[in-house]
Design brief:
Elements (H helix, E strand, L loop, with lengths): L5 E4 L2 H6 L3 E3 L2 H8 L3 E12 L2 H7 L22 E7 L29 E12 L14 H8 L2 H9 L17 E2 L9 E2 L2
Parallel strand pairs: 1-5
Antiparallel strand pairs: 1-2, 3-5, 4-5, 6-7
């Protein structure tokens, strides 16, 4: 079976119109882009009222099983799909109030199903933007200020070191099932 070769681009629209290239794996995509890549899945294009209208708009790019229009695309080109979503409502629904009538607390939900629309989904390798390792907070403390001033290599070296306490841990004076009575602090008593 052939792997899907996803487009490499900075945005979903660019993945549709003019990608830098196509790759099946992140390592390939990173080598082509010359930068780090993230896998993304985004909605693009207009919303269509029916699936048939969406298939007509993107003919030749999606599998079509309709009679008389049958089309099957290659396995490596299957980075596009259609998604059925709830259509945005023109006005928000009024706030529901409990009714406490007829043994029911809430009113019955509306009988009609919500309207749906069809949108194109593009899966692609998105070129990752350069992100700082640590972003400074509005009022950084001294330690945060010191960490943000480090370069990336020094920060990675510091994070690779094991965590060590500044001073050795003190030995435990008493065991788990022992206690010191408040009126005689020189005695350790078993607690059972």
């Amino acid at each position: 079976m052939t792997a899907v070769r996803y487009p490499i681009a900075a945005s979903a629209q660019a993945a549709l119109s003019g990608p830098l290239g196509r790759a099946a794996r992140a390592s390939e995509a990173g080598a082509i882009a010359g930068a780090a890549v993230d896998f993304a899945s985004e909605l693009v294009g207009p919303a269509f009222a029916t699936r048939e209208a969406a298939l007509d708009a993107f003919a030749g790019r999606l599998d079509d099983e309709r009679e008389g229009r049958r089309a099957s695309i290659d396995a490596e080109d299957r980075y596009l799909s259609l998604a059925e979503l709830a259509a945005p409502k023109a006005k928000p629904a009024p706030a529901m109030r409990p009714v406490y009538a007829g043994g029911r607390r809430w009113p019955k939900p509306p009988a009609e199903a919500p309207q749906t629309v069809w949108r194109l989904v593009v899966r692609y390798w998105r070129i990752a933007a350069e992100r700082p390792l640590l972003e400074p907070s509005p009022s950084p403390t001294a330690r945060q200020r010191k960490l943000t001033e480090m370069d990336a290599k020094a920060l990675r070296e510091r994070l690779a070191e094991p965590l060590r306490s500044p001073k050795p841990q003190k030995a435990l004076d008493i065991g788990l099932f022992e206690f010191i009575p408040p009126d005689a602090p020189h005695i350790i008593m078993p607690d059972e």
